[in-house]
């Protein structure tokens, strides 16, 4: 799976369509980055949730990382004042993007860059754990059963 | 490896393929984006994130 996901992600980023003449490239690339990060994070959470018993048993560190992302932390923008940690990272980048979009100053651009960098760090950890989780669910071992396998 | 584990792995693999397919389709669509999000797209992203936040898979175990 490692051979599939990472090249596809790189391909997707490298193969991004050119930015329309009336669009701000910083804004467009930020939207793309946040969207991909949100989808990747949700894929990881869904994968861990759907195969929780297997992952908890065979790769407890992956389960612990998923729980870390799910943990509620204070976030003033949420109706309850709290939001899951992973979603806070997405929301903080989104907030910075909206601030930049409303007022395109260097200062706001720098804040957006910092928020995206923080999100990228989390994404790197997610990708690492996602590969571990996918390794548990890939069908590879089933095509070459160990000698002495009994039914 | 016992039969139940094998069945669990096969089931896991199939659902994983479906999830990956949906993910890659969204990735392809995102990579084709050239303009800034419209208000509708902003709202769609907000709604999606709100749905995710409320979904069972995003709730900590024991909550």
Tell me what you see in this structure.
The complex is a heterodimer of chains A (151) and B (63). In chain A, 74% of the residues lie in helices and 4% in strands. Chain A is mainly alpha-helical. Chain A has a two-stranded antiparallel ribbon. Chain A is globular. The relative contact order of chain A is 0.15. Mean pLDDT of chain A is 83; it is low at 141-151. Chain B has 63 residues and is an all-alpha fold. Chain B has a domain at 1-29. The two termini of chain B are 33 Å apart. Classes of the chains: A mainly alpha (151), B mainly alpha (63).
Keyphrases for this structure?
heterodimer; A: 151 residues; mainly alpha; two-stranded antiparallel ribbon; 74% helix; globular; disordered C terminus; B: 63 residues
Low-confidence stretches of chain B: none
Number of helical segments with 4 or more residues of chain A: 7
The major sheet of chain A is characterized as:
2 strands, antiparallel
Number of domains of chain A: 1
The gross shape of chain B turns out to be flat
Largest interface: A-B, 57 and 37 residues
Strand content of chain B: under 5%
Helix content of chain A: over 70%
The SSE order of chain B reads HH
Average pLDDT score of chain A:
83
| End-to-end C-alpha gap of chain B | 33 Å
Q: How would you state the average pLDDT of chain B, rounded?
A: 82
Q: Count up the helices of chain B.
A: 2
Which class do the helix and strand fractions of chain B yield?
mainly alpha
CA-atom Rg of chain A in angstroms? 19 Å
N-to-C order of helices and strands of chain A: HHHHEEHHH
The level of helicity of chain B is over 70%
- Looking at the chains present, what oligomeric state does this protein adopt? heterodimer
């Amino acid at each position: 799976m490692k051979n599939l996901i990472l090249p596809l992600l790189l391909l997707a980023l490298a193969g991004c369509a050119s930015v329309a003449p009336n669009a701000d490239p910083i804004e467009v690339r930020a939207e793309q980055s946040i969207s991909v990060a949100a989808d990747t994070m949700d894929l990881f959470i869904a994968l861990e949730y759907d195969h929780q018993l297997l992952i908890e048993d065979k790769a407890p560190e992956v389960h612990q990382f998923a729980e870390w992302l799910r943990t509620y932390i204070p976030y003033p923008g949420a109706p309850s004042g709290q939001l899951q940690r992973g979603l806070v990272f997405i929301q903080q980048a989104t907030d910075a993007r909206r601030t930049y979009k409303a007022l395109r100053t260097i200062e706001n651009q720098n804040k957006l860059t910092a928020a995206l960098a923080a999100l990228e760090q989390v994404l790197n950890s997610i990708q690492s754990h996602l590969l571990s989780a996918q390794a548990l669910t890939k069908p590879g071992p089933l095509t070459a059963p160990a000698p002495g396998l009994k039914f | 490896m016992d039969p139940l584990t094998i069945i669990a792995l096969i089931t896991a693999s199939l659902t994983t393929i479906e999830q990956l397919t949906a993910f890659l389709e969204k990735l392809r669509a995102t990579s084709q984006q050239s303009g800034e999000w419209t208000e509708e797209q902003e709202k769609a992203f907000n709604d999606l994130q709100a749905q995710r936040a409320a979904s069972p898979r995003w709730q900590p175990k024991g909550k």
